[in-house]
């Protein structure tokens, strides 16, 4: 924590901290070298100072003793010459003395009055020296004199003879000369220290190198681990593997066959099959004793185990991640593939997410939808309805369902929409999930079902009416016919009776149609030849149609498709279709093309009845199969023909539909022979085609001996007895 | 010239058939009650019976069965305003000669009767 209140206190530490940092930054090898050097140098200094001090003390003490002895000796020897005033002998005495030892700087002899009688100075006697060391009480005196040549021990000894003082002897010993051996000793100490320093440095550096090399290896491996390479091996290989030591052949043991990992790092991972000798304390274990190393090796082994454990963890993590990703993709695929619209809203009814079906529906990418509301995406009325339901779901916290229509993409589509409140783990409502399913088709089925139910009720009603009306109608018709015999054929009554008869017959036809319409379920189905059934009717009507300038062109599939059906009812269908086609071209004349084709893989046969008339107007198209719908003038048709035909074909599990105008592909699908017979395109109207699909009886019935025989047999029957007018 | 009985719950219908066939010189009796017709047939077997299927108490098919019991030789034409496959099949099984759908044409009736009588 920085202390801003007392910055001054930190200033003092700064240099120290700087040094510490510099030391911390140093390489391990430098630190060891510096440490060793410091210790050796400090030891040398301590040795040199202590030793030198002791030696110099001893030497100086010895020198002082020697100087006193020499001075007193000189004083003794100088007594006689002094008495004799033999100056020459005195001079000889001092000169000899000086020659004896090099550390004697000077020597001189003074008489009792202080006059210098003899001295060893070459360049004249320094006068002030006589006063430097005066003797008191005729005793020996020692002073240290500071001269230009260094410190000098000055010894003064009185010259006595028989109790009388004859003079003074002075001797100068050079302190430097005395300490000369001490200096030599110090040099020796220094030399020994230097050699020791060198040896210690080399040994220290070698040790440091050995240690740092292993640490650097660890560091390198750590870096490669950081880079993602976990397959590192830092510790050296063990000298003997555990399974070799134990000779256990225990292949189930995780340590077995792993030359890298030490078994004691796997403690806790070893299974129960490990022999008892293995789970004792590792310290006593022969494997440990043989393979355990120093702390750095321990570190390296721990590092290896760590990287293996890390590797295992990472593998598990990766597997978990892959699993998670797979789950996510699965979920995304489901959301993308489902045809339902799925959208997630927040509490403010803003889009948080939408699936592909929904984004395709609104023609907007998901990123643009997110953050928008229903008002931005739907028409106002639609959006309002959706918002009301969504808010109700949020407020009541209950699932809401509604059927909503949408006309935004042209054409009305119906959706079954479900709003489900989304709760978090604590049960609070945090949003809304909306799923919409396209129900348009289901609605269409519903409408078809309603329609067919309507038709069924209508059929029952029609049947009842027809039944009740048949008898009175028969009576009216019968009497009208009966009366005609009684009156003159030229009379007005006869003509009136003819009119009654004619109109009664129209009624009879209507009733007959109604009966046919109401009793579509009753039929006598059998195996029959479709071609024969169609051709029979075509042959029957072609002459009458020819008189109306309508030509019938046939293009039949000659593979003789056999169907299971009611021949009479199907003939009624063909007649109805042909009559309709003829009536469409009543004024203009034209051609009717009848085509049949067999589709074996689809197990069906298709019949086209096309005309070259004016076609059916688009607004009338949806109603043509409705009962009593007719475009014909009153009295010309009941409008039951097509609805009866529709019922008959449905009863045969088939389908019938109309297309107008005629598609060009229809003409192209005809055989070349048929195409030649067609009226020229200019004479053709837009035209209408009725397409009837009927299921085949079964597979064997197509173009097989059975089918041929059925068709031939029918043909023979037709040839022998001429066809009756089919029951209308 | 044949003896014909007609049974129809609607008397006008019976009378109509009677009128038409009498003109062809047949002796025709029209009934509206099933028992009367069966009794008449039992008394003197007619050449031909024209029976409506929908009657007051019985069905035409039942009457046909009864008549065939009392007079096996009689020929029968069934006449119905509501033809069904079952009644048609049953009538043929019980020996009806023809099965006609109402309203029947005068000419058709005449020719059918001639046809059946000629058999």
TrEMBL record, chain A:
This is histidine kinase. Residues 670-728 are annotated as: Disordered. Its main location: membrane. Keywords: ATP-binding, Cell membrane, Coiled coil, Kinase, Membrane, Nucleotide-binding, Phosphoprotein, Transferase, Transmembrane, Transmembrane helix, Two-component regulatory system. The lineage of its organism: Bacteria, Pseudomonadati, Thermodesulfobacteriota, Desulfovibrionia, Desulfovibrionales. It catalyses: ATP + protein L-histidine = ADP + protein N-phospho-L-histidine. It is found in: Cell membrane. InterPro entries: HATPase_C_sf, HATPase_dom, His_kinase_dom, HisK_dim/P_dom, HisK_dim/P_sf, PAS, PAS-assoc_C, PAS-like_dom_sf. Residues 310-337 form a coiled coil. CDD domains: HisKA, PAS.
Automatic annotation (TrEMBL), chain B:
InterPro entries: Bact_response_regulator, CheY-like_superfamily, Sig_transdc_resp-reg_receiver. Keywords: Phosphoprotein. This is Response regulator. It comes from the Bacteria. The modification 4-aspartylphosphate is found at residue 52. Residues 3-117 form the Response regulatory domain. It comes from Oceanidesulfovibrio marinus. One of its GO terms (biological process) is phosphorelay signal transduction system. Pfam families: Response_reg.
């Amino acid at each position: 924590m920085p202390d801003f209140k007392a910055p001054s206190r930190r200033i003092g530490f700064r240099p120290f901290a700087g040094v510490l940092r510099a030391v911390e930054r140093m390489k391990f090898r430098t630190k060891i070298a510096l440490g060793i050097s410091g210790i050796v140098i400090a030891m040398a200094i301590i040795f040199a100072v202590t030793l030198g001090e002791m030696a110099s003390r001893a030497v100086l003490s010895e020198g002082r003793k020697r100087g006193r002895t020499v001075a007193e000796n000189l004083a003794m020897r100088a007594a006689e010459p002094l008495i004799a005033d033999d100056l020459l002998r005195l001079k000889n005495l001092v000169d000899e003395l000086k020659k004896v030892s090099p550390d004697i700087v000077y020597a001189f002899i003074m008489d009792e009055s202080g006059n210098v009688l003899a001295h060893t100075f070459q360049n004249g006697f320094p006068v002030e020296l006589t006063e430097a060391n005066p003797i008191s009480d005729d005793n020996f005196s020692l002073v240290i004199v500071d001269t230009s040549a260094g410190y000098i021990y000055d010894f003064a000894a009185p010259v006595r003879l028989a109790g009388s003082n004859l003079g003074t002897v002075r001797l100068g010993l050079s302190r430097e000369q005395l300490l000369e051996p001490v200096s030599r000793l110090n040099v020796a100490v220094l030399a020994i220290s230097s050699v020791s320093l060198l040896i210690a440095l080399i040994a220290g550096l070698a040790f440091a190198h050995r240690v740092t090399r292993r640490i650097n290896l660890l560091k390198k491996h750590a870096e490669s681990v950081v880079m993602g390479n976990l397959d590192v091996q830092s510790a050296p290989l063990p000298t003997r593997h555990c399974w070799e030591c134990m000779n256990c052949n225990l292949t189930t043991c995780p340590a077995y066959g792993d030359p890298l990992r030490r078994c004691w790092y796997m403690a806790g991972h070893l299974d129960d099959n490990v022999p008892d000798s293995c789970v004792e304390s590792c310290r006593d274990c022969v494997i440990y004793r043989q393979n355990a190393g120093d702390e750095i090796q321990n570190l390296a082994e721990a590092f290896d185990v760590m990287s293996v454990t890390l590797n295992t963890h990472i593998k598990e993590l990766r597997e978990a991640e892959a699993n998670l990703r797979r789950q996510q993709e699965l979920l995304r695929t489901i959301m993308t593939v489902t045809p339902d619209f799925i959208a997630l809203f927040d509490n403010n009814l803003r889009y948080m997410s939408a699936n592909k079906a929904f984004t395709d529906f609104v023609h907007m990418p998901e990123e643009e939808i997110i953050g928008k509301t229903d008002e931005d995406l739907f028409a106002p009325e639609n959006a309002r309805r959706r918002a009301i339901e969504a808010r109700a779901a949020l407020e009541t916290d209950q699932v809401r369902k509604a059927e909503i229509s949408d006309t935004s993409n042209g054409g009305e589509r119906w959706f079954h929409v479900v709003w489900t409140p989304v709760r978090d783990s604590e049960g609070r409502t945090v949003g809304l999930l909306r799923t919409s399913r396209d129900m348009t088709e289901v609605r269409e089925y519903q409408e078809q079902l309603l329609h067919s139910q309507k038709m069924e009720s209508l059929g029952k009603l029609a049947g009842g009416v027809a039944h009740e009306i048949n008898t009175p109608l028969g009576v009216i018709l019968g009497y009208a016919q009966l009366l005609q015999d009684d009156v003159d054929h030229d009379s007005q009554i006869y003509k009136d009776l003819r009119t009654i008869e004619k109109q009664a017959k129209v009624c009879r036809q209507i009733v007959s149609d109604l009966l046919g319409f109401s009793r579509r379920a009753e039929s006598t189905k059998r195996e029959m030849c479709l071609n024969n059934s169609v051709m029979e009717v075509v042959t029957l009507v072609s002459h009458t149609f020819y008189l109306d300038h309508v030509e019938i062109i046939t293009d039949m599939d000659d593979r003789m498709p056999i169907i299971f059906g009611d021949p009479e009812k199907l003939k009624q269908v063909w007649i109805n279709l042909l009559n309709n086609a003829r009536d469409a071209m009543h004024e203009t004349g034209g051609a009717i093309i009848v085509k049949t084709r067999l589709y074996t893989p689809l197990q069906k046969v298709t019949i086209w009845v096309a005309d070259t008339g004016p076609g059916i107007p688009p607004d009338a198209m949806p109603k043509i199969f409705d009962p009593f719908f007719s475009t014909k003038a009153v009295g010309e048709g009941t409008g039951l023909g097509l609805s009866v035909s529709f019922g008959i074909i449905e009863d045969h599990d088939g389908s019938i539909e109309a297309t107008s105008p005629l598609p060009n592909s229809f003409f192209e699908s005809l055989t070349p022979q048929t195409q030649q017979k067609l009226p020229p395109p200019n004479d053709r109207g837009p035209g209408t085609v009725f397409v009837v699909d009927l299921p085949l009886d079964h597979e064997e019935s197509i173009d097989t001996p059975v089918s041929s025989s059925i068709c031939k047999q029918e043909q023979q029957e037709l040839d022998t007895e001429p066809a009756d007018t089919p029951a209308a | 010239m044949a003896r014909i009985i007609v049974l129809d719950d609607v008397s006008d219908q019976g009378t109509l058939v009677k009128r038409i066939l009498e003109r062809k010189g047949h002796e025709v009796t029209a009934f509206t009650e099933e028992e009367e017709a069966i009794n008449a047939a039992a008394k003197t077997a007619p050449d031909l019976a024209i029976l409506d299927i929908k009657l007051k108490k019985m069905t035409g098919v039942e009457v046909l069965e009864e008549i065939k019991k009392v007079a096996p030789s009689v020929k029968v034409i069934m006449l119905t305003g509501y033809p069904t496959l079952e009644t048609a099949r049953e009538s043929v099984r019980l020996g009806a000669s023809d099965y006609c759908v109402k309203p029947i044409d005068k000419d058709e009736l005449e020719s059918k009767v001639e046809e059946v009588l000629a058999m």
